[in-house]
Amino acid sequence: MSPYVAYLDLTEPVELPDNTTLRLMNSADLPAVVALEQQNALTPWSLRSFELSLNTKQANWVVYFEATLVGFICANIIVDELHILNLSVAQEYRGQGLATALIMQLCRAVKDVPIRVIYLEVRQSNKVAQKLYRKLGFSLDGVRKGYYQGERGIREDALLMSRDF
Ligand SMILES: CC(C)(COP(=O)(O)OP(=O)(O)OC[C@H]1O[C@@H](n2cnc3c(N)ncnc32)[C@H](O)[C@@H]1OP(=O)(O)O)[C@@H](O)C(=O)NCCC(=O)NCCS
C-alpha cells in the first residue's frame, strides 16, 4: 500500500488557483466537456456517454478558469465503490493541482455515501496520470491485458488501481 494512504485525506477542503471554480457538471457544460475530451483522449467518450454519466448525482464535476471550462471528472458509484471513469485537464492549465482538486472535490461530495474503496483504470503508457494517482495514495491492483484501443490499432493494457476511501 502507498505510504501516502496513511495521511492523505481526500475529503479535505480543496485549494484552487485564483479565478478558478469547481462545481457539479450539468448538461449546459457538455459541449465544452466533449470538446476537451476530444483534445485529450485517444478514444474519446461520446456526448451520450457524458449524458449517461450525469445520471450519477454528485459524481461529475467541472473546473472553470473564469468562463472557460478547463477540466472535468466523471465517476460512478456501485454500492460501496467509487469508480473514477474519466478525468481531464486542458493542456495549458495542467500542473496547477486541478486534477487533484477534482478528485478531492468528488470525494468530498460523496463522503456521506458509505464508500469503502475507489477504483480506476489507466493506460499503461500514461505515466503522468499514474504519478498523479500514486501521489494521491492509489496503488496497483492488477493489469487488464489489451483493454484499451491504442494507436495504429495496437491494443494497450490497463493498469487497475485503487485506494481505500
Ligand atoms: C493526468 C492529468 C489529468 C493531470 O492533471 P493536472 O491538473 O496537471 O494534475 P495535478 O496538477 O493535480 O498534478 C498532481 C500530480 O500529478 C503528477 N503530475 C502531473 N503532471 C505531471 C507531469 N507532467 N509529469 C509528471 N508528473 C505529473 C505529479 O505527481 C503532480 O504532483 P506535483 O505537482 O506535486 O509534482 C492531465 O495531465 C490530463 O488531463 N492528461 C490527459 C488526460 C488523462 O491522461 N487523464 C487521466 C486518464 S486515467
From TrEMBL:
Keywords: Acyltransferase, Cytoplasm, Transferase. Residues 20-165 form the N-acetyltransferase domain. The keyword Cytoplasm applies. PROSITE patterns: GNAT (PS51186). One of its GO terms (molecular function) is N-acetyltransferase activity. Belongs to the acetyltransferase family. RimI subfamily. This is Alanine acetyltransferase. It comes from Thiomicrospira aerophila AL3.
